[in-house]
UniProtKB/TrEMBL annotation:
SMART domains: REC, Trans_reg_C. It holds the Pfam family Trans_reg_C. GO terms for biological process: regulation of DNA-templated transcription. It comes from Clostridium collagenovorans DSM 3089. Keywords: DNA-binding, Phosphoprotein, Transcription, Transcription regulation. Residues 126-226 bind DNA. This is Stage 0 sporulation protein A homolog. The modification 4-aspartylphosphate is found at residue 52. One of its GO terms (cellular component) is protein-DNA complex. May play the central regulatory role in sporulation. It may be an element of the effector pathway responsible for the activation of sporulation genes in response to nutritional stress. Spo0A may act in concert with spo0H (a sigma factor) to control the expression of some genes that are critical to the sporulation process. One of its GO terms (molecular function) is phosphorelay response regulator activity. Residues 3-116 form the Response regulatory domain. Residues 126-226 form the OmpR/PhoB-type domain.
Length: 231
């Protein structure tokens, strides 16, 4: 699991971003102040920093400068400052990317995943998830069962990714619905979760009526019911 430091003083936005990152399988540390962010960074192994520029008791530029004195960790600015001078300054002091508000969650997550894949390639990180005869490669959007590729729709892929990245954890129907909906900004009704879970089971379960992997938690949601390993 990769660790992300999220520095954002808008509590509601921080919670929203944190939730979406955790759903992608990341561990998220949240801060709203400059010194708080530095303390978290200094006391934890952080792989990527996402920071607003306007902070309490300092700003994101100062944070970036302090971090760059000791680390080449990946850093994204996520800010309402959209003037050319601010963007240039951000890159000049060491940011790897600069995203302006309002922003698309789909774009943010895509950029985060792309940067994390860069880390994985450099460090040889194990990112293929194996579970019994299943082998799932998120970066390639590829699922193999006993070595044979299984073609998934976009929604089936999203559901599988959400579940298999959080084995043995209950994922609510609302969380799964959001995983289908908000990244593309396309409305999906509540029946989409059940329909796509059924289709996914038909592709990965030996007996879809008695599923081994995707268990229904009555009245709550679903759970990936097997331990997974990364290879």
């Amino acid at each position: 699991m990769k660790n992300i430091l999220l520095v954002e003083d808008d509590v509601s936005l921080s919670r929203g971003i944190s939730f979406k990152l955790k759903r992608e399988g990341y561990e998220v540390f949240c801060a709203s102040k400059l010194q708080e962010a530095l303390d978290i960074f200094n006391n934890n192994e952080i792989n990527l920093v996402i920071s607003d520029i306007g902070l309490e008791e300092g700003d994101g530029f100062q944070l970036c400068e302090e971090i760059r004195k000791r680390s080449n960790v990946l850093l994204i600015f996520l800010t309402a400052l959209d003037q050319e001078v601010d963007i240039v300054t951000g890159y000049d002091i060491g940011a790897d990317d600069y995203i302006t508000k309002p922003f698309s969650f789909m774009v943010l997550i895509s950029k985060v995943n792309a940067l994390m894949r860069r880390i994985a390639k450099k460090e040889g990180v194990k990112e293929v998830i194996e579970c019994r005869a299943l082998s799932f490669n998120p970066s390639k959007m590829q699922l193999l069962i006993e070595g044979n590729e299984v073609v998934l729709s976009k929604n089936e892929y999203k559901l599988l990714s959400c579940l298999i990245n959080n084995p043995l954890q209950i994922i609510t129907k609302e969380q799964l619905l959001e995983s289908l909906w908000d990244k593309d900004g396309v409305y999906v009704d509540e029946n989409a979760v059940a329909v796509n879970i059924r289709r996914l089971r038909e592709k990965i379960e030996e007996n879809p009526s008695e599923p081994l992997f995707i268990k229904n938690i009555r009245g709550i949601g679903y759970r990936w019911n097997e331990e997974c390993t990364r290879v």
